[in-house]
Amino acid sequence: MTQEEGVLVGQAAVDELLKVLDLDRTGEMSFQGMSPSVGPQRVFGGQVAGQALVAAGRTVDPARLVHSLHGYFVRPGDPAEPIAYEVENIRDGRSFSVRRAVALQHEKPIFFMSASFQVSEEGLDHHAPAPPDVPGPDEVPTMVDRLGRYPERLGVWSIIPRPIDVRYVGEPGWVRPGDRPADPHQRVWMRIDGKLPDDPLLHACALTYASDLTLLDSVLSVHGEVWGPGGVVGASLDHALWFHRPFRADEWFLYDCWSPSASGSRGLATGRMFSADGRQIASVVQEGLLRRVGA
């Protein structure tokens, strides 16, 4: 299936995402990317972070895999304009490579990121267990089921492509005010809703894209708050992501998120990603701007 009520889904939507992540090379260390033809008024943070990682990764030996990235969103991006990516080679050592990537529009930075890549090595191995007693992805409502209950709350999300199958275990943040019970955790099953090529860098970029979709919502979940009229508006301020183990972004993973603190119109959110067999594949931390809006 490629269409649901006029919205691009499935492999067709994934192919569109792959086009967005396939940057044009404009120089030895420079690239250019575009935004989807249909999307929100500002460039989605996960998109610019994913594209920046594509740019950085294309200047590194493919045998070195990304293990972490740290980025700051400094200006809103214009989806109607191309985004230029300039990459700086900070260091190529015997085991690690470090790159700095800056995303620019109108010659001004909208996002900058440092990313580190490592050769494969053996060493100590442990991780905290996945949360117990979480229903599986086939046991929770699909996005289509969720969206059908709140058509008036959807806005642009009712028309943009959906390359990621997102299934909330609890109530999402775009329900009506008062319909969301407070919950200290937000848990979401995700996977790319189609097949990706085997390139590990591409899977890391797709996971980076997905990691910005629901993380900040865990701050609202603590208070039973919602997005939009009668609730809160927000924007990502920074984003950090650590890749722990091999994974495929087109296979189910659980995104277990919570917020340790919120104050001063900012909220801190952290998340762990687990494969369906319980391996921790990544950790994420983000701070975002959160402001109340009227009904």
TrEMBL record:
Residues 178-289 form the Acyl-CoA thioesterase 2 C-terminal domain. Residues 39-118 form the Acyl-CoA thioesterase-like N-terminal HotDog domain. The keyword Hydrolase applies. Keywords: Hydrolase. Pfam families: 4HBT_3, Acyl_CoA_thio. SUPFAM superfamilies: Thioesterase/thiol ester dehydrase-isomerase (SSF54637). CDD domains: Thioesterase_II_repeat1, Thioesterase_II_repeat2. PANTHER family: ACYL-COA THIOESTERASE, ACYL-COENZYME A THIOESTERASE 8. Belongs to the C/M/P thioester hydrolase family. This is Acyl-CoA thioesterase. It comes from Micromonospora sonneratiae. The lineage of its organism: Bacteria, Bacillati, Actinomycetota, Actinomycetes, Micromonosporales.
